[in-house]
């Protein structure tokens, strides 16, 4: 969750999306300014932190780059739990990845933090000739679901910093979340207390 | 963007990348007893530093092994419980008990004797046991004393039920809570940290809060899971690592993930923790992963029995130094290599980056001091230096706070030298050869590279930098790089000493070095080390022939030893540097001699130059730029020097080149003791009149010298030059044919170093000074046309008539003449002037206009009768009547003016009298409370007085104080009081 301290803001940010959509590439481009043609797939989740200055405040993003593989899907709630922002990444050359992105949006809307700021990133924008997801369609979808949308390219760095900056800019205006950070534990029926006796 | 953390490295899982490899663990002891296969394992070190390893076998044995530093592992005790496999063993050191899980029952054993075996029959069908771990903070906040016999808590998994148990003093269990309903898939593993219990089932990991009784899913496991859930308490950070396949997800006690996932090469059944690393074992391999970065840093192979599971156990408190590993029936102990040894090992492998990052890590964890970090930086620096990587070496030297600059002296100057004894015999970890001259370092390094190339051809790998092998560097390049970087280092040392003396000059170095400089701690070097640093820096500059830097160093504040550099610099022809150096070391005489020689050399070379080619420089005066510099530097030294002999010795050649600088030397106010004027005057070349003039002017005007000789000499010299100038002016005026340009040139040829005209200065001086001898000056100018000067001189001599004659008749300056009469102030002077006007001698026409003017302005001073007598009979009546009229009018005017002044004064007097009267007739009201402002006595009916400032005093005090000073201390005689009502306004 985003928490303020003076003008410093700590914000948990999570990247979700289909395998191979370019989540890690996007983060590595943003954090280290690098791009690897053959980025190995993330296992579990990778963690990065990066600080940027927006509107006289510094926002420290704690970025969780999750694994896109279906096998690790069940880990995702742990990472988006309490996140202040999320970037849902799809690959503009893959319709499937766009469908998967929509599923992620639904999941976040249902289970995520209601004040979470969500961005939809159509990655691999440099592969225009292989495009399979029209930008307009994604834009329309984003508008309908209250996301902000950008087409990015980790390879050419187009819109990469912009999307993170835009998220950072929207952060301080977000309402504080009703639920505290950390896990939400559910009450359970009281258990019987039984005094032990000697064996 | 400022930072990023490493996690989930995208290198191949489990691959031990060379650059991150560290030697953290080493095999310490091993034992292969003939026992059934081992099923469970624990290790503990008690307060007496005695280490015990406990193993449980598939056959129900619980065996304790003792670990002795000398003899290794040995069988200690062995008991058999019920012949069923021992699934887990837990050490509860603070109650000296062992908790053993076998066949669904929990047994309590004594830690040291393994007896008596006590079964906790309250709990049946137990599949997992875990003891509660208290973090340091929690213990402090909740008053739990670790080691106290209370507070032995356990979480027990019984099928789908979580049972929390406390074992009290007697060894009896008390069930605190039973939780069911959440863990429907059966509890497989548990960790309990403070208030948080993390439970793993076949389908998910849960967090149960002991404080609130609430429970939630951390995450569910992918279905179908290849492996059962496993977890490992990371006691050091109070976190728990949850496994999904071969991935470790570390969560905190709130169930929040911390850092990236750890990806292990293989799926491991048990995990251990040692320091910043997680240990996993599988198929005869022990692997170490760095918790923060996720890198696999070490892999150790051990011979395991094929097919038998491997186990690993740590000391469970996060501070242990040992891990135990079991495979089959074999037990091994691995010990953490001391940090220092780890670093040394990395350095030996030339993995400098990893060594530094390890040191920084250790420092962050408080396990290493800044001093050690500095030591490592220095050590790395030396290693890099011998590896011929000079720039990096210097960077590390600069990062070391403890390294002495003198440690590098032997690399630059051959031993023995002046500083040999200063060099600390610090060999660090002895990983590098003893220091030797940079040339030798380079030569040896090159030999090493040659050997490595040869070996590589033969298929042998060496530690030599691959880059060097591919492109062997040239000796010259290496040496240059070495010297350049050493220069950089010494420059930072030098500048940091300067900063220490508040003369910060960080602008002299690069951005990178500026950072070093700002962080520099070398501000308090001993004087002798500073001498070494600065002298060697000069050496290095000289080696690089960086003349500008040499001169900057020499002319700035430095601690160079002149004797070390003298012959060196003069041999290499760096005379200017030497001159600067002498100057900065107050060896003025030597510095001056060099400048003199340089000025002479420059002039001769310059002459040659200008003869040969068409020189761009201003050749009109035949003085080159270099010569100007030389003379400027020399004059700078002399300006501050009080050494009379030295100044006068060098004055000559400076004057030859630049008279203005020569004057500056003489009149400088930088010296403490002024030069004796007589000697200076004697020493000035009599042909250089201007210098003498300026010097005398300074003596008289600035130094207020009242020596009449100087005044007279000055007056004479000024007169002479005025006469010369006058003559020249005449000459030019006479030669009509000479065109304007030539006059200009001749003017320039006669260029004076002074701006103002001597004539004006002469007149001013003659008028203002009373100390010169007017007769002597007069002798000089008497026959000249310097009339005004003559008038001034005559005036000094009191020759009124002559003065008036010059002013009135020669110069026809009526104003000056009248002014002079006013100065004399006697009426007869005016009369004398009038006579002169009316009867000028030498056949001059009478100056009636001037006469009329005189009568008009000063008529009142002249007696009308006398004037009438003086009037010439030839005077035209019209003029005469006007003259007389003016005079009479002037007298009348004068009289009336007097009357006005008189009456105005009277009016003032009356005003004042009136004000005084009113003041004195003021009424004062005195009542019973009125007191004297001075003695504070009640006035009553006593006599009293009031001052103009309204203070009232009794008569006694009035007498004491006098009538002009009031109680407030105001003296009305000195500090006059005016009141607004008074009419006196002037």
Automatic annotation (TrEMBL), chain A:
It is a lipid-anchor. It comes from the Eukaryota. Pfam families: Ras. Its main location: membrane. One of its GO terms (biological process) is vacuolar transport. CDD domains: Rab5_related. The keyword Membrane applies. The keyword Lipoprotein applies. PANTHER family: PTHR47978. Belongs to the small GTPase superfamily. Rab family. This is Ras-related protein RHN1. It comes from Anisodus tanguticus.
TrEMBL record, chain B:
CHCR repeats lie at residues 665-846. This is CNH domain-containing protein. GO terms for cellular component: cytoplasm; membrane. Signal peptide: none annotated. It comes from Anisodus tanguticus. It holds the Pfam family CNH. Transmembrane segments: none annotated. Residues 37-315 form the CNH domain. Residues 1-20 are annotated as: Disordered. InterPro entries: CHCR, Clathrin_H-chain/VPS_repeat, CNH_dom, Vam6/VPS39/TRAP1, VPS39/TGF_beta_rcpt-assoc_1, VPS39/TGFA1_Znf, WD40_repeat_dom_sf. PROSITE patterns: CHCR, CNH. GO terms for biological process: autophagy; endosomal vesicle fusion; intracellular protein transport. SUPFAM superfamilies: WD40 repeat-like.
